[in-house]
Specification:
Layout (H helix, E strand, L loop, with lengths): L1 H44 L5 E7 L6 E7 L18 E4 L5 E2 L4 E2 L5 H10 L9 H4 L5 H14 L6 E2 L11 E4 L9 E2 L12 H10 L3 H10 L17 H8 L2 H9 L14 H7 L5 H8 L4
Helix pairs in contact: 1-2, 1-4, 5-6, 7-8, 7-9, 9-10
Length: 295
Amino acid sequence: MAGSALRAEEELEVEAQAEQEEGQQQQQQEVNYHKIFHVVAELHRRGYQRLRIFPLMSPSGCSWRCNLVPLDNIAPMSHSFPLEYEDALLYSSGAQTSFLDGIGDLNADSATAIADAMIENINETDPEDVLARAKGEDSAYAAWFVDEFLAKLPPGALPCLIADWEQDDPYHFGVLGDEHADVKIKFPPVRIDEEEAKPIVSILGFAKARAWRKVFQLLEDHPGLIDEINPYGKSGFTLLHQAAWWGDVEPARKLIAAGADIAKPDSQDKTPLQVARSRKHKKPDLLDLLSKGVE
């Protein structure tokens, strides 16, 4: 009996030690994630101010991501959303401390050292090099990044711009965790081009952010936009395609009731139904709604 009690006590001690080490590792990892933001601030100081962050959760919800996006890949009239997701420097928490395929170590290297390595690896002859394209002035964003974003982001907190729920007030960065519900980090300045400052860009941007209340408010003033295809990027979605992509049943129902063309293809020649079927959610109510009059 004494031996059994001793073994049980030892097992409890091992479990407690493992939990403590796991907690310490998680805390360290959260600090390391913030180092990414300090790398960006360092790059801004060195003249690469046209680099923006796009933090989000993976579709599975198992990992946090932070994409570094050049300004020329930010959607017009948007502050952070890229035209093409892959046209960026991509980091996932699944990579642990390895930053950008090992260009830096988020545990061992300083933000300055990582910025040094990134600049040293720039390929000036490659027109698609993300960091080379990010060189240039964007003082408004650089100031926002330090004075608003870094100043208000709580220690260890992870920002997130893509949520799995409708956002009725899409004017602040989301911060993961109920304990950060009151954190309000204003969005950065939007990218504005004279030719591109159009209602279609705004309404599709709200749809992409799942801010459907704002979408329907804009449709009241611009009903002709209901079937317009996004002229920027490769996806070429209409509003109904975007609702299908997200799996948002009620917004899709309201769009159809407002006159959205259920059979209109996007720029990739896919109908909203085909887009919905390509997604993992495959909601029966949505598929049934989008199939009426199509099949």
